[in-house]
Design goal:
The chain is an alpha/beta fold. It contains 15 helices and 24 strands. α2 crosses α3 and α7 packs across α8. The chain is globular and about 75 Å long. The structure holds adenosine-5'-diphosphate (ADP). The site of adenosine-5'-diphosphate has 22 residues, from β14, β18 and β19.
């Protein structure tokens, strides 16, 4: 027997309808690419998204077409997403931090037909557009007055293009499993892989994200999504913000400490989210200026492990709650969030920082397990680590074009490529990427734990740990350090600082000082490049020969 409730497909434009009706006058504030702060409302964004959908249809775009965006977080980018989805096309966010050849490869793979682009990226687009034959039109997110000279034959100013539609348009109706958006993983190994979100997965993910033990935002919040819409969907905030009716503050192209502080302060932001690198810049700015954060209540930190010192500073010096989160493009992207369950009541001081160093627990809609190399499920004891696998309605079930099939199994589990343990209360902690974990004498050493520990040293600016070949142990950890300006810590000093805080056999065998650690386009440490750089490195502990009686 079927239930007798209405079939109300979970379509993304319903989120914007809700925001435009229930929260019509709530502001969306953007730092525009041209410079000034601009203000609009959900009602206006909805009206303009309707025009955008109408105009796209008039220009001949059809359901299922991929329409790319190469843009910062602004209200225009939001209306572009909703307009594209509302006429049944698929928004495809491009990450400008990738190499131009990689962007062209991704656009060709997705067969993008049109591109909405911020002026910042015009030189980039002029370079790659000739290599993308499917591209029919480039819409520059500006008005006629700011329209620059361009070599692109098919470029048009957004405001003029939009003004030709009157907004008398009805959103298209289709099945909730229809594709809504696309985002490629940055492809640190192999070619980038396309993740295709559906309307249903986006709506369910937005609901999950809003829940009190997830991001816990409400219409009374002022939300600053610093994490870009082009990187893992701005962690869903362009959907959960309007769904909940929160005021949004969009930072545009400027994410330095001073610019972010200005928005946090003048717009009275209560909730924000970004990767650790961004918060490092803000904290530096606060320390240099002596400013405080009177309005900010919560900051979600993820994308890379949140250093303990960062949590300590936000919570103890600025009275801002830190929620450490983990996720990935393939998960829309939220996987776990480190909000406190009742069983954590009473945990304080260093023990609380230990808990907050974990990436958190899964909200409804994310199932997790940790397995060994033989796919046996490992216990939730907070120490046995293995491959982290997930499933849920907002988790990918395949990549676009069927590549990477080995990451998905028949029971619907997706192998995240992360290595983690889970404790009895359900808190998960990432200990490594599967390809980065160090296997010393058959036992695994977590590089992330060692890195977090090393950056706690007052003279260390950045640290990375890689496995280096060792004739006895197979691999042993090498700590690569960028020193703080003017500081000259000795190797023994840093290793001494780490001693006693991890198992003795985990301690790096050596420390190498470098001026710079290479990063990927999305700001993660490029371990592949580091491993290459130290490919011939001989550790002082490696005699090169096996001692008598020793085995590998
Ligand atoms: P990319 O395309 O660069 O892989 P993602 O944002 O999808 O971009 O990256 C997801 C990966 O980032 C995860 O699989 C994990 O390795 C890492 N990651 C995300 N959040 C955290 C975190 N809080 N701590 C440690 N690693 C994290």
């Amino acid at each position: 027997m079927l239930g007798l409730m209405q079939e109300w497909p979970l379509l993304c434009h319903k989120i914007l309808d809700h925001a435009g009706i229930q929260h019509a006058h709530r502001e969306v504030v953007s730092r525009s690419i041209d410079g000034p702060i601009v203000r609009t409302t959900y009602a206006e964004i909805r009206q303009r998204a309707l025009k955008l959908a109408q105009r796209l249809e008039r220009d001949g775009y059809r359901q299922g077409d991929r329409i790319a965006t190469l843009a910062w977080n602004t209200a225009r980018h939001i209306e572009a997403w909703y307009g594209i989805m509302g006429m049944g096309a698929i928004y495809h966010t491009l990450n400008p931090r990738l190499f131009p050849e990689q962007i062209a490869w991704i656009m060709n793979h997705a067969e993008d037909k049109a591109l909405f682009v911020d002026l910042t990226f015009l030189p980039l687009v002029e370079r790659i557009a000739p290599a993308v034959p499917s591209l029919r039109q480039v819409i520059l997110l500006t008005d006629a007055a700011h329209m620059p000279q361009t070599t692109l034959p098919n470029a048009i100013a957004y405001e003029e293009w939009l003004a030709e539609a009157d907004g008398d348009f009805r959103w298209k109706e289709f099945h909730e499993n229809t594709a809504a958006g696309m985002c490629y993983t940055s492809g640190t190994t192999g070619e980038p892989k396309g993740v295709v979100y559906s309307h249903r997965s986006n709506v369910l993910h937005a609901m999950m994200a809003c829940m009190p033990d997830a991001m816990g935002i409400s219409s009374r919040d002022v939300v600053l999504p610093v994490v870009p819409m082009f990187h893992a969907n701005a962690w869903g905030l362009a959907q959960s913000g309007p769904m909940i009716g929160a005021k949004l503050v969009m930072p545009g192209a400027r994410m330095d400490g001073a610019s972010l502080y200005e928005l946090l302060d003048t717009e009275k932001v209560s909730f924000t989210a970004a990767v650790p690198t961004v918060w490092l810049m803000l904290l530096q700015h606060l320390e240099e200026t002596g400013k405080k954060l009177p309005y900010l209540k919560k900051v979600v930190i993820g994308g890379a492990a949140c250093p303990r010192i960062m949590t300590r500073k936000f919570e103890q010096n600025y009275d801002v709650e830190v929620v450490h989160a983990w996720g990935m493009t393939e998960m829309s992207p939220l996987g776990t969030l480190g909000t406190l369950k009742p069983e954590c009541e009473g945990i304080k001081g260093e023990a609380l920082l230990d808990l907050k160093a974990k990436q958190g627990h899964a909200p409804f809609g994310v199932e997790m397990k940790v397995t060994d190399d033989n796919d046996r499920v490992l216990p939730w004891d907070g120490k046995t680590f293995g491959r982290l696998k997930v499933r849920g309605p907002a988790v990918a079930r395949a990549y676009y074009g069927g590549v990477g099939a080995e990451q998905f199994d028949d029971d619907g589990w997706f192998d995240t490529g992360d290595v983690a343990h889970i404790d009895a209360s359900g808190y998960m902690q990432i200990t490594d990427r599967a390809k980065d974990v160090i296997k010393s004498g058959g036992e695994w050493i977590s590089t992330i734990d060692l890195e977090n520990l090393a950056v706690g040293h007052p003279e260390v600016a950045e640290a990375a740990v890689i496995g280096v070949r060792h004739s006895k142990w197979d691999e042993r950890p090498l700590l690569v350090v960028v020193r703080k300006p003017g500081a000259e810590p000795a190797k023994a000093d840093i290793l001494g600082f780490m001693e006693g805080k991890v198992a003795k056999w985990w301690l790096p065998d050596d420390v190498a000082f470098v001026d710079e650690i290479p990063h990927t386009a999305t700001g993660k440490i490029q371990k592949i490049a580091l491993r290459k750089q130290f490919g011939d490195y001989r550790l002082p502990t490696d005699s090169g020969l096996l001692q008598e009686g020793e085995t590998l």
